[in-house]
Specification:
With about 200 residues, the protein is an alpha+beta fold. Helices cover about 50% and strands about 20% of the residues. The chain has helices at about 30-35, 65-75, 85-90, 95-105, 105-110, 120-135, 140-150, 155-165, 170-180, 185-195, and strands at about 5-10, 15-20, 25-30, 45-55, 60-65.
């Protein structure tokens, strides 16, 4: 019904934002990721929206990027995943991070979301893997440069493996290792990466 709503953000709540459009305030449910991107003093904001109608409610969900909106729609297409669970997942993972988690079977990344257990995470992976592999999603980021370097088999690869063995997800390990000088020995990289993770 609404593709996007553009107006002035006048109130940020827990999990929602109110946008004033010519004197009408739209309450839009959103992710913490989108909320964090709304800077104080913003005069105009565009939220890409999804209007959901149920028997007992009509709710508007919106996101500051079209990628996040599209991922939200993909998530709610999975059986057993409602709008609130989808928002919870997008609050702990960007669309590109979630796509990588799905493609690489990273259940732990998805279950970081409040109220999302391993069973739902596995269903998301099962139902969305092929769709996300073929989707026109930008899975690259600054962190992916590190991921590429890690795959080359240098000391960073050993460090990532060690961090995963300590219980960190592959995504967390790659990010932490990427922020450390790769020319150092693996044990030193691990120490410095652990400091960042803590």
């Amino acid at each position: 019904m609404y593709y996007y709503i553009k107006g002035k953000p006048v109130l940020k709540g827990i999990g929602n934002v109110v946008i004033d459009v010519h004197g009408v305030g739209y309450l839009i449910n959103t992710s913490q990721t989108s909320l964090n991107s709304i800077k104080e003093g913003t005069n105009e904001l565009t939220m890409y929206t999804v209007f959901i109608v149920r028997e007992d409610a009509q709710e508007l969900y919106g996101f500051t990027t079209n990628d996040e909106k599209n991922m939200f729609e993909s998530l709610i297409s999975v059986s057993g995943v409602g709008p609130k669970a989808a928002v919870s997942i997008l609050s702990v993972a960007s669309p590109s991070e979630l796509a990588r988690a799905v493609i690489t079977d990273d259940v732990k990344k998805i279950t970081k979301a409040q109220g999302v257990g391993p069973k739902i995470a596995k269903r998301i992976i099962l139902e969305l893997r092929e769709k996300l592999k073929n989707a026109d999603l930008d899975l690259t980021s600054a962190d992916d440069e590190t991921a590429a370097a890690v795959e080359m088999g240098d000391s960073r690869s050993d460090a990532v493996s060690a961090l995963i063995a300590l219980g960190y997800s592959r995504d967390e390990a790659i990010k932490a290792v990427g922020a450390v000088d790769g020319e150092m020995p693996a044990d030193e990289i691990i120490k410095r990466a652990l400091v960042r993770l803590m």
